[in-house]
Amino acid sequence: MQRTSFDDMRCPIARSLERVGEWWSILILRDAFLGVTRFDDFQSSLGIAPNMLTRRLRALTDAGLLERLRYSEKPPRYEYVLTPRGRDFRPVLLALMAWGNRHFATEGPAMQLIDERTGEVVEPMMVDAKTGEPIDRARHAMHAGPAADERIRSRVNTYRQRRAQQRATSTNSSQ
Length: 175
Description:
By secondary structure, the chain is mainly alpha-helical. It has two domains: 12-87, Winged helix-like DNA-binding domain superfamily/Winged helix DNA-binding domain (Arc Repressor Mutant, subunit A), CATH 1.10.10; 90-137, no CATH class. The chain is 48% helix and 10% strand. The protein contains seven helices and four strands, in the order ααααββααββα. The chain has helices at 12-20, 23-33, 39-46, 50-62, 84-87, 90-103, 150-174, and strands at 66-72, 77-82, 113-114, 121-122. The chain is globular, with a radius of gyration of 21 Å. Keywords: DNA-binding, Transcription, Transcription regulation.
């Protein structure tokens, strides 16, 4: 069965998944953030088949998240380094790590974010870049953007109607 492409969808989540939605891609990016750059090191770290790793590295390079740089002429060898677009994926990885630690690490966290000045464990959270205020469900809601097509507008309007109903129900039950 042929995989559906999300490239033509206006949804930024779908378009992002087109680039990184396959689990090997996210694990390759994780390893790149940990300093892995060479094919053999990715393969060793991940236990991934060479043909799959080749496809994933090519896709991440084509998507502009990694750059392929030659480090040896004979034989020709390449390393893969994060681009600015790839480095912008870091908050997504940190959010996945925090979510995984919170909900699925029954034995305790295997990776943590540490403040290297204080040595304290850091709990990542999303904040509004303008105000510095934490993003939370009560205060912030998704809206259709200027480039939204009818499908996105419909999806977001349905979400907003449900949200309004939930708020009305919670207000009525608390009175």
